[in-house]
Amino acid sequence: MNPRVAGIIGGVIGVVATGAAIGAAVRSKRRDVVEDMYADEPFGALDVQTKEDMQVLVRQIWLDTGTTVLMVTHDVEEAVFLGQRVVVLASDPGRVAADISVDLPRDRDLGVKRTPGFLALRATIEDLVRAQHRKGAAAS
């Protein structure tokens, strides 16, 4: 199979698997159906509007069910919007550069992305990510 096609199929499978977990949680509104949700870049292949809709849905599931959600993302805005904490990995493999608490309202909507607190936190995390990237590049 063409590697590009395989990558696209892999991305679609990831979105479908995330959708299945979200669907189970939405239908039941019970924590025991989806106790923990782990996702690696689940919304990376989506258009902006669908991605935001999914982000709002994941937050709502978390509020309704208390499901633990661990998401890996390179999108700082997404991490700040979805998270209670944002963990920035160090340029040294397996090390944590920062573990930052997200001090925003629990019940937030997309409008929070325009607030000074959100923008400041996003800028702080972006600066940390850039610093780790430069550190890694200098070590190479």
UniProtKB/TrEMBL annotation:
InterPro entries: ABC_transporter_ATP-bind, P-loop_NTPase. Keywords: Membrane, Transmembrane, Transmembrane helix, Transport. It comes from Kibdelosporangium lantanae. The keyword Transport applies. It comes from the Bacteria. This is Uncharacterized protein. The chain crosses the membrane at residues 6-26.
